Amino acid sequence: MATLSFRDVTKTYPGDIAVIHGINMEVADGEFIVIVGPSGCGKSTLMRMVAGLESVTGGDISIDGKVVNKLEPAERDIAMVFQNYALYPHMTVFENMAYGLKIRKFSKQEIQSRVDRAAQILELSLLLDRRPRQLSGGQRQRVAMGRAIVRDPKVFLFDEPLSNLDAKLRVQMRLEIQKLHFKLKTTSLYVTHDQVEAMTLAQRMVVMNKGIPEQIGTPIEVFEKPASIFVASFIGSPPMNLVPVHIDAQRQVKDESGAVLQIDAASVPASLANQKVIMGMRPEHMTLHAPGIPIDIEMVEILGSEQLIHGRHADTAVVLRCPVGLTKDFPLQLGETVQVGSDGVHPLHWFDAATGRRLID
To answer: Do 199 and 263 belong to one domain?
Structure first.
């Protein structure tokens, strides 16, 4: 196991195309870090820089205290799991898992021992004689993980390893990866665009936006106190409701038309008086028929025990998550106007209208 360090790391492609704008982060020995963000945010580029598949334009990447910028991938003592499995179709499961050890001249006894151990961890012992075409998608991904485990690397790198699996398999494989990290406790860097994967797997997560780490923190920290509008709108399902408002000197909250919203002045920080801000409310922290914002109902999604109520206040979409039973006696009609507001337990979120950054910690 090892520490992983990023110091002012940047990446610029020819033509002065900057894709990573300076990342500083320390990853502790045995920590599981998830890098999450939309397509094109630089998360896979950052992963490839750690692996040695992309050069570092500026700054240093260190593994276990040693700067690895100039080292070849084979010299970095890392193991990478790709999204497309990259298994040799003509080899058995055993041969695929053993291949990296074989070309490194490990003894047959050591190869057998390492493959058997990895197969036992991943429940592949009965599949070692099969070829990839005889395996399911989840089994192939476990083989790819097994090939990485036998290396016994200092750092595991996972590059969107579950994106080719169906929804049910992704849930199963998330559990497998959690169990694997609990057993091995190897320092791991995991890249995904799926915020559910990030929330369930990460000990800490890095939310990337256009090559910039918008926020680094535990899943709970990122969910409860998003550092920016981008994080608030990316993390959470559905994402946070964000309503542009103006707060007057008496801490009355007004929408863009000047209409006063039914927001308790006591819930508005005094420091926000006379400012234009963005007010945020999580869909699951709101309730129907409560003082807050009037919305016109556009759609209701029934999700079993829960429902998503989609509405609109002026030009702003608002979503509320609540139990189905909450509207049993008062069914909602499309087009009707209802008041929705805070549940009174969770605080409102406030963001700067110009910068998008969080205003109140």
So the answer is: no
